[in-house]
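Limitations

Structures in this collection are predictions, not experimental determinations, and the ligand pose is part of the prediction. Treat each record accordingly. The example that follows, with 3,4-dihydroxyphenylalanine as the small molecule, is included so readers can see exactly what is and is not provided: the inputs are given verbatim, and the output is the predicted complex.
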Amino acid sequence: MQNIKEELLLKLKEVKNLSDLNDVRVLFLGKKGKIQEKMSLMSTLSNEEKKSFGQEINLLKEEITNLIEELKFSLEQKELSEKLSKDKIDISLPGTKIVKGSKHPLNKVIEEVEELFISMGYDVVTGPEIEKDLYNFEKLNLPKDHPARDAQDSFYLTEEYLLRTQTSPVQARTMENNLEKGPIRIICPGKVYRRDNDDATHSHQFHQIEGLVIDENISLAHLKGTLEVFAKRMFGNEREIRFRPSFFPFTEPSIEVDVSCFKCNSKGCSICKNTGWIEILGAGMVHPNVLLAGGYDPNKYKGFAFGMGPERIAMLKYGISDIRHFYSNDIRFLNDFNRIEGGVDSED
Ligand code: DAH
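Predicted complex:
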């Protein structure tokens, strides 16, 4: 046994790396190694001899294991520090630029409006962009030959189908789909299409956000309170709103809603054209014919509706002077917009 130990110490001296060390371990502690070889002699010994021989060989085995482990540890440390000194990191090198995306300004406005109305208990619903004449016009109290149809020059696909000119058809669809004919509280953001020539304020494709509330005992006062919360949230806490009479076929009475000018605090400026007020949306009480077309009893239920253009709201809010900026996907506009709250066309 003494020989075995001496032989081990000699071999360990020659070990240069972990792989050499493993060879030594196999040679001494492996299944066919020197220790195992000695163990196999046990069967030739008397019981008395077995005991002391066993103890001795176990001690030797433990000693060899410890010596190998110690050397293994110091070899591992050595390899690690060699690797670390080779793999130096140059912290003065410029980093890899991570290209960061950002939200489109229109989506920012739409999401802000959605969040506000969700907090007031509204559902956000959507409808098809390829719409039936039936929902886009007829069920909204715009029968065929109605003069208001002229005002909305439309992209007809067939006699029956067109690209929706407004998000109002979602009102008709939601009423029709609500089989219980109970209360409704929705907003509906989406794209709409009109045969306009594109310029700084017109686009053949733009967005609207529709709102509809139906319940018993709904009045204009509810509409006013709701839109006041909306105007303050979007344009600042000091804002006031006012109603002006207007006309939409699907509401009676119909109104246009102005917000007090947030640029000049109603003193008069170029944005409010010196009136102190800025028009932000159309609204009204749901026309009885629209309730009937949606299967609601106008004697029991009332409702209010509104429709707004998020492009217009974003242009006002961020001082953007050309609607085409929203669709040209000019990365400079989108990036600038992300950095500067005022937007690129801000007048001041
Ligand atoms: N759909 C109208 C438009 O495109 C906007 C509108 C006005 C929607 C009044 C409404 C409303 O729901 O009540 O001009």
